[in-house]
Task: inverse folding
């Protein structure tokens, strides 16, 4: 019953978007209630659909769009867990935003845009074909641009929005190229081999794509999947297109929580998961996924160590965690097959909960003290007990605290350790331990930077005299709900893996598992993640709370390592200045100056087109004398002309 | 003979008569607009709901997919115009006559769409023309409106005479006025194609229909009339009555092509290219938006006329699609201009030239829904996806490209290139208005946009975008309609 109304999951927020945009300023609290109600509706339908299709059903609806393309809905296990997460987190963040954005004059615009974003994100999730996926993906990108630049009067925000838009565009172009290449291959396969679409199926539907995999040449498949991954790299802020995500923190904190932590940035991971059967058949692409993911995980974590902006720390943490998800798809995909999707998605979901929580806590702190700078905070624990406690829970979850033997722990413990174990198993089977080393080192850094953040913000003495206060209940209640999830979501692990493993079987895709001897990691491997986690906590406690090391001696201009990290490996300079300004803009400006200004504008447009056309227009206007006699004469002239034309044409 | 299939025409005719009668009885004539809109809406439901194919009255009328899609266009356009007229002619004491005329004009156009006989075609044509002559001059205290009506009437009479002459020549050649019978007679005698009489007959018909289609050089009445007539009537003329010329041309000229195997390719290619280029170039230098829309309408007629150049099923379908899209876009645009006129007049009662481009400055702040809709219509007219304008142009240009490739014909390809360049050129004058609306500062306060206008405009926007986003059923309808012609 709910499945029949699956289209409403997207349509409700779209309607809310239109209404809020046009009538928001006439409604109480900037029209916030409409999107909240709509997204609550989406959540209820998603939840209902889940119970309907559990344990092994799916919802498939499709209608022809034109020629061989279609619009359709596919809700399988993979999609339904995403749907529930996106609508639920979005709902909580919308509620929280009522408080957070209470004093902003542009509330209708804010709620309209977040509502549109939610609709687009949900549309990404339930697309049943790659083209529709891409269209929704682009709207998601547009909303991200609009929301990063929400305070467009701030030059940094405007610049960040532009950067995000341009950098993700690089990925999007690759993705689109992948779709085009896929389409070409599909049509080739249909005309040249025995493969044919099942009746009622369309060419770019996921199930048709998967069915055609055996017919597509392996090199083509590798290129297609790599291009898809290019899109994912842009959207999910993976190296080397990660630079936009920390800058995106210029938007409101709620936006960072919703878009740049819990949902949009995970779309890239979701894309790889969605098309996973193709990746599995292209091991080289999978290897690239693993390495990029692993490298990003550690690379971003190093920068998280030194950032002083509370949101930037979290942004690098997000990049790093997204790296983990990619790593899981890449490494576990090679040794565990379809289970990799479960492992990665599980971390995606638990990350969504605790990272949204971290951001909302950060928002609560920023709301209270009025600054993003960690150095100006401190001693807030006494004043903001709820925020401090929930944020500590989130930090524990991010650092992956738990007890391996007893299966007790936070959400992050279950999800992240599974990834690290997967990486180890990959290393054990193939002898390539590098991804594992990346993942374990990143775990240590994660623990250090997140507790550094917590201690700097909440412990010690206040470093600035500010009148901080706890946030209103409309903000703290979502925090507490998310904290419950950050603590207990992990216990659904076994059921979750089992459920997602059926996902591609439903579509008739068999993903082979590399059967080997039963794999039992040693106790050290099981305990190592938690050991490095505790180690990180202790290090941060000693340095930032006990202050046994005088950080001001290390953190100086003279320390080149610190400079390198603080300047983010000079990536902004490299991408903005060298690539952006010199290479792209410089070349474009030069060719533009010459070709466009001189030749096109100067000669073609100005002289030929503009002047000729305008003067021609003026001349022709004079024919229109306004005298009916002339009109009729022209008509009769036309009759004569036509007779001549017909005689010429006819003979 | 299943008379139910003619229910929309019967409904509208009786409603028209009823409204005149009602006008004598009721005090508050504003109610008449609502009845008229309700009647048109019911007719639209009947048109879409009742399925079937039949001929009537000794095969004078035929109900088939071709007639139905054009009837839907006519009824939709009239419906939009009537809804907007509820505001436009509010408190006018001649409303009953106005709605009577609109309904009869619609019936006339529907008869043309259904005509299976030259006499029925001519009668329908005249019924619609007579009604619209009066409608154009409906603001009888406004000299511009009167001038518009008179010019329209004079040029229209001459073209009616030409058309009638052409029809009588066809009758003289074939000995029948029934179109299928003429087809048979012509096909039986291959010599017809080379007879000068046949050529002359066709030329007169092209001239007669070309007047309604506003093809250059039969277009000259159009800018003056569209500018002077009440905006809602201009909407009806540009969006509806113009399509009557096309459906008549589809019926008669395609017949000539198929049966006489007459080579109209060159003639129509020249007409189409001149028409679109002329329309777009002159539109650039207009300051009156209604005039600009008139020239853009001429340019659109040029695109649609491309359908005759290759006259394949796909190209006719493209022409029909573009006609359908143009009805919505142009109808909506004229109604939006009517709203701007209302806005300007509410600022200053004695304002003249209410459609001057300066009045559109900052419209996005003064009337946001109208400005947004107008921007949608303009972008759609320029052929930007996803819109009805894009789909129509795409199918049409695509069909000609296919034909150019299969005939290995360079000049057909050249025509496509010219058409696309024309589309690009047209963006200039559309974008200029959008710039006025969104970039320039407003010279007045925000106004309340009257509901009837807004409903009509928003309906047109929804239609325009719907066809662009989900073209499949419309393309299929157009292909079905084109198949009736047997090309």
Result:
């Amino acid at each position: 019953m709910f499945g029949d109304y699956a289209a409403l999951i997207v349509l409700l927020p779209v309607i809310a978007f239109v209404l809020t945009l046009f009538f928001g300023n006439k409604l109480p609290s900037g029209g916030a209630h409409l999107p909240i109600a709509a997204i609550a509706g989406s959540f209820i339908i998603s939840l209902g659909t889940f119970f309907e299709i559990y344990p092994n059903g799916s919802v498939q609806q499709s209608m022809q769009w034109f020629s061989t393309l279609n619009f359709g809905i596919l809700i399988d296990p993979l999609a339904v867990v995403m749907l529930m997460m996106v609508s639920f987190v979005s709902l909580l963040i919308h509620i929280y935003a009522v408080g957070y954005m209470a004093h902003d004059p542009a509330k209708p615009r804010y709620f309209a845009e977040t509502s549109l974003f939610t609709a687009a994100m949900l549309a990404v999730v339930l697309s049943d074909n790659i083209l529709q996926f891409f269209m929704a993906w682009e709207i998601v990108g547009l909303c991200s641009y609009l929301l990063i630049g929400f305070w467009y009067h701030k030059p940094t925000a405007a610049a960040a929005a532009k950067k995000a838009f341009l950098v993700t565009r690089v990925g999007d172009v690759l993705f689109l190229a992948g779709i085009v290449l896929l389409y070409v291959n599909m049509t080739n396969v249909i005309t040249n081999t025995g493969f044919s679409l099942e009746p009622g199926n369309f060419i770019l539907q996921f199930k048709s794509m998967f069915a055609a995999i055996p017919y597509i040449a392996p090199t083509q498949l590798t290129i297609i999947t790599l291009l898809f991954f290019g899109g994912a790299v842009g959207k999910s802020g993976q190296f080397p297109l990660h630079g936009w995500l920390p800058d995106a923190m210029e938007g409101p904190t709620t936006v960072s929580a919703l878009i740049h932590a819990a949902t949009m940035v995970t779309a890239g991971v979701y894309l790889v998961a969605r098309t996973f059967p193709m990746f599995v058949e292209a091991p080289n692409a999978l290897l690239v996924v693993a390495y990029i993911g692993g490298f990003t995980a550690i690379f971003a974590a190093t920068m998280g160590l030194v950032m002083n902006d509370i949101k930037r720390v979290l942004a690098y943490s997000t990049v790093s965690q997204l790296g983990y998800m990619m790593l899981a798809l890449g490494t576990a995909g090679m040794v565990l097959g379809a289970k990799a999707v479960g492992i990665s998605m599980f971390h995606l979901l638990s990350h969504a909960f605790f990272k949204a929580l971290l951001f909302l806590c950060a928002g609560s702190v920023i709301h209270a003290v009025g600054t993003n700078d960690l150095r100006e905070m401190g001693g807030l624990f006494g004043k903001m007990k709820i925020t401090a406690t929930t944020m500590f829970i989130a930090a524990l979850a991010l650092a992956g605290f738990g007890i391996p033997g007893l299966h007790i722990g936070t959400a992050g413990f279950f999800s992240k350790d599974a990834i690290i174990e997967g990486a180890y198993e990959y290393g054990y089977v193939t002898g390539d331990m590098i991804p594992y080393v990346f993942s374990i080192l990143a775990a240590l850094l994660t623990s250090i930077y997140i507790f550094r953040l917590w201690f700097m913000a909440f412990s010690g003495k206040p470093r600035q005299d500010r009148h901080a206060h706890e946030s209103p209940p409309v903000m703290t209640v979502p925090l507490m709900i998310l904290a419950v999830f950050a603590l207990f979501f992990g216990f659904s692990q076994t059921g979750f893996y089992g459920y997602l493993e059926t996902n591609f079987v439903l579509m008739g895709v068999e993903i082979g598992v590399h059967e080997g001897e039963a794999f039992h990691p040693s106790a050290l491997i099981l305990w190592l993640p938690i050991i490095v986690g505790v180690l990180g906590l202790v290090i941060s406690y000693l340095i930032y709370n006990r202050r046994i090391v005088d950080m001001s001696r290390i953190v100086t201009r003279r320390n080149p390592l610190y400079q390198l990290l603080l300047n983010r490996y000079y990536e902004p300079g490299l991408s903005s200045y060298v690539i952006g300004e010199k290479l792209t803009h410089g070349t474009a400006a030069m060719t533009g100056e010459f070709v466009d200004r001189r030749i096109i504008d100067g000669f073609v447009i100005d002289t030929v087109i503009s002047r000729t056309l305008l003067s021609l227009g003026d001349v022709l206007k004079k024919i229109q004398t306004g005298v009916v006699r002339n009109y009729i004469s022209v008509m009769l002239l036309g009759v004569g002309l036509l007779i001549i034309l017909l005689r010429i044409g006819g003979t | 003979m299943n008379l139910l299939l003619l229910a929309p025409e019967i409904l509208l005719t009786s409603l028209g008569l009823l409204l005149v009668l009602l006008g004598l009885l009721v005090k508050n004539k504003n109610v008449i607009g609502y009845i008229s809109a309700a009647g048109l809406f019911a007719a639209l439901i009947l048109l879409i709901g009742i399925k079937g194919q039949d001929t009537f009255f000794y095969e004078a009328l035929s109900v088939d997919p071709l007639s139905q899609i054009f009837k839907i266009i006519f009824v939709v356009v009239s419906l939009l115009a009537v809804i907007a007229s509820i505001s436009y002619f509010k408190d006018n004491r001649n409303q009953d006559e106005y709605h009577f005329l609109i309904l009869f004009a619609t019936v006339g156009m529907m008869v043309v769409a259904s005509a299976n006989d030259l006499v029925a075609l001519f009668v329908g044509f005249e019924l619609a023309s007579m009604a619209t002559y009066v409608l154009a001059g409906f603001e009888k205290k406004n000299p511009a409106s009167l001038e518009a009506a008179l010019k329209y009437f004079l040029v229209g009479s001459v073209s009616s005479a030409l058309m009638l002459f052409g029809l009588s020549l066809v009758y003289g050649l074939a000995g029948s006025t029934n179109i299928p019978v003429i087809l048979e007679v012509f096909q039986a005698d291959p010599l017809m194609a080379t007879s000068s009489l046949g050529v002359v007959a066709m030329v007169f018909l092209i001239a007669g229909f070309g007047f309604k289609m506003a093809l250059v050089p039969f277009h000259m009445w159009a800018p003056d009339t569209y500018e002077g007539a009440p905006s809602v009537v201009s909407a009806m003329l540009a969006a509806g009555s113009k399509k009557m010329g096309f459906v008549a041309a589809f019926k008669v000229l395609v017949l000539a092509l198929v049966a006489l195997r007459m080579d109209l390719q060159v003639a129509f290619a020249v007409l189409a290219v001149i028409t679109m280029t002329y329309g777009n170039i002159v539109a650039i230098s207009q300051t009156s938006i209604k005039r600009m829309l008139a020239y853009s309408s001429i340019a659109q007629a040029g695109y649609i006329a491309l359908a005759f150049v290759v006259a394949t099923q796909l190209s006719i379908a493209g022409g029909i699609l573009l006609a359908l899209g143009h009805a919505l876009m142009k109808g909506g645009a004229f109604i939006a201009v009517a709203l701007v006129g209302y806005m300007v007049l509410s600022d200053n009662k004695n304002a003249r030239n209410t459609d001057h481009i300066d009045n559109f400055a900052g419209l996005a702040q003064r009337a946001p829904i109208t400005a947004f809709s107008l921007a949608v219509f303009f972008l759609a007219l320029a052929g930007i996806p996803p819109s009805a304008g894009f789909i129509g142009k795409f199918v049409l240009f695509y069909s000609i490209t296919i034909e150019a490739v299969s005939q290995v014909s360079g000049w057909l390809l050249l025509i496509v290139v010219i058409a696309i360049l024309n589309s690009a050129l047209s963006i200039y004058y559309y974008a200029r208005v959008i710039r006025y609306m969104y970039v320039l500062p407003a010279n007045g306060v925000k106004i309340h946009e009257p509901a009837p206008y807004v409903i009509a405009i928003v309906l047109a926007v929804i239609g325009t975008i719907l066809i662009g986003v989900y073209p499949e059923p419309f393309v299929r309808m157009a292909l079905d309609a084109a198949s009736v012609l047997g090309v």
